[in-house]
Amino acid sequence: MKKKTKKIYKSLRNNLFIILYRKIRINKKLKITSRKIKNIKIGKQKKYKIYELNNSRIYTNCLENVAVIKDNNLIPEGSFQQIKGSLASSEKNEVLKTGTPKFIKKIKGTTFNLVQGASGYNNYCHWLVDILPKIELLSKVYNLNSINNFYFAKPSSFQKETLKILNVSPNKFIDSKKYKHCYCDKLIFATHPNYFKGTFSEAQSNIPKWIIQYLRRKFLKLIKNKKKTYKKIYIDRSDSVLNHCKLINNSEVTTFLKSKGFKILKLSKLSFLNQITIFNNAKFIMGSHGAGFANLIFCKKNTKVLEIKPHNHPNKVYQRISNINNLNYKLLKLKKIKNNIYGDMILKTKELKKYIDL
């Protein structure tokens, strides 16, 4: 009964907002202003673009849909939609059926869109390889100081730290979780840096080399304090809110690794600059697959890396980063344990010893 009532409520709500803001349609012939970014290419021929729209709307459900709308026309170049985790065509954008069921927040000045669904909000890896490269693309066309607003979630502590380095004020951020439907005097958006088809896992497994080079260039020069450095580190994921790619016997593994001289680190407890300093100076890094491994971006050549993940996990982003940075990467695949609330892998120390003693 509750599901039926909820469905009726959503239908009534959607119809009300369609009456208020009108139905959304697709007009692929609608011309919008765009500028090619000359010195960064997606491939041999295709180039990234920055798009501009005056007096337009943006809507997001904060999950898998973003809609850029001009005169009630959905703009495919600026819209984003996933169906069961895979990028879909603009014809599948949910606003074509539901409309924009949130009241409008008017935003003055120039606004740059950083929203791409939920993936970039709190995830450390997505922030580095998806969101920050969008700011880099923007900087190739605009002076960042000329941008009045950035449409995204309220920045977290590590996000604020990176924004400060890029001279972007967190105070310019419009919270898309609070304001899901906005009318912008001038809206700017860019080609996604790496997601063009398929799933995020597939896209990141083929991440463009320039993104890694850009992040190294921007942040490695800031490493100054080398007091907190360790030769061998283990990334402990027990503090993650997600149970996937966790070790059920993590306590046993950490005790064993301490005896082998490893420093056990929970990266959520460290600042951004501390993380990149530690990874840049480490000789051996190991841990379960997780966002913290994005710090491999900042490692020195030939650093030893042991990534642990379920045997059927599709994401190869850290193998890709390791290849770009010429790291000594090895993968340990484990059988996934189903229906366990404490994690989904068991790592026997006997098996681990083979990799530690190499």
The parts where pLDDT drops under 50 for at least 5 residues are none
State the helicity in percent bands.
25-40%
Q: Tell me the β content.
A: 25-35%
Compute the gyration radius: what is it?
A: 22 Å
Counting H and I runs of at least 4 residues, what is the number of helices?
10
Oligomer: single chain
Number of domains: 2
The number of distinct β-strands equals: 16
* Topology pattern, helix = H, strand = E: HEEEEEEEHEHEHEEHHEHEHEEHEH
Span from first to last CA? 60 Å
SSE layout:
Layout: H1 2-21, E1 25-26, E2 33-41, E3 47-60, E4 65-70, E5 73-74, E6 80-83, E7 86-87, H2 95-98, E8 105-113, H3 124-139, E9 149-152, H4 157-165, E10 173-175, E11 181-190, H5 200-204, H6 209-219, E12 232-235, H7 250-259, E13 263-265, H8 272-281, E14 284-288, E15 304-310, H9 317-324, E16 328-334, H10 349-356
Parallel strand pairs: 1-5, 8-9, 8-11, 9-10, 12-13, 12-14, 14-15, 15-16
Antiparallel strand pairs: 2-3, 3-4, 3-11, 4-5, 4-6, 6-7
Short description:
With 358 residues, the protein is α/β, with parallel strands linked by helices. The protein is 28% helix and 25% strand.
Please characterize this protein's 3D structure.
The chain is α/β, with parallel strands linked by helices. The chain has 2 domains: 18-217, no CATH class; 231-356, Rossmann fold. It has helices spanning 2-21, 95-98, 124-139, 157-165, 200-204, 209-219, 250-259, 272-281, 317-324, 349-356, and strands at 25-26, 33-41, 47-60, 65-70, 73-74, 80-83, 86-87, 105-113, 149-152, 173-175, 181-190, 232-235, 263-265, 284-288, 304-310, 328-334. Strands 1, 2, 3, 4, 5, 6, 7, 8, 9, 10 and 11 form an 11-stranded mixed β-sheet that branches. It has a 5-stranded parallel β-sheet with strand order 13-12-14-15-16, with helices on both faces. It is globular, with a radius of gyration of 22 Å.
